[in-house]
Design brief:
By secondary structure, the protein is α+β, with helices and mostly antiparallel strands. The protein has one domain: Nucleoside Triphosphate Pyrophosphohydrolase. The protein contains four helices and eight strands. The chain has helices at about 1-20, 65-75, 125-130, 135-150, and strands spanning about 30-35, 40-45, 50, 55, 75-80, 80-90, 100-110, 120-125. Strands 1, 4, 5, 6 and 7 form a five-stranded mixed sheet that branches.
Length: about 150
């Protein structure tokens, strides 16, 4: 628990020190690992591959409300999202940092549908989801979720 606290504190302090220069467009990316009753993870297909659903948060609403709205776009009602990890990136193609917050939740009810503008969405076994996505941090978040739920 102490290690998690200090890791989160370190990420937060780095974010404050390095900062994210977005001009007048201030936002945070929040990714949602949605698990169904079979333990599968929801992924959506983008032109660059499969990823977990994401919210580019720039409105004045709570994280919880924003993530529940994101899930609703897929036809799903979810449990309260739990913080799974905070990650900072400095891409090779630009010298600016970017922060990503990952949350996990379970489907409470609803039927999966493909939101307008999305290529495809599917449920995948965790090992397959980890293999398919370009997000290395999904493995870390899944391991934390798996330990907490088994």
């Amino acid at each position: 628990m102490n290690r998690l606290f200090f890791s989160l504190l370190f990420c937060f302090l780095n974010f404050l020190l390095i900062g994210q220069d977005t001009g007048n467009d201030s936002y945070t990316i929040q990714r949602l690992l949605i698990y169904n009753d079979k333990g599968e993870i929801l992924l959506e297909k983008h032109k660059n591959g499969w990823m977990t659903p994401a919210l580019r948060q720039h409105e004045k609403i709570s994280i919880n409300e924003g993530l529940k709205n994101l899930a609703a776009e897929f036809g799903l009602k979810i449990s309260t999202p739990q913080l799974a990890g905070i990650f900072m990136f400095v891409p090779e193609y630009k010298n600016k940092s970017s922060q990503r917050q990952h949350y996990s939740c379970k489907v409470v009810e609803g039927e999966l549908n493909i939101p307008e503008g999305k290529i495809d969405v599917q449920w995948f076994e965790p090992y397959k989801a980890i293999e398919m996505t370009t997000q290395y941090e999904i493995n870390f978040c899944y391991q934390r979720y798996d330990k907490a739920n088994h």
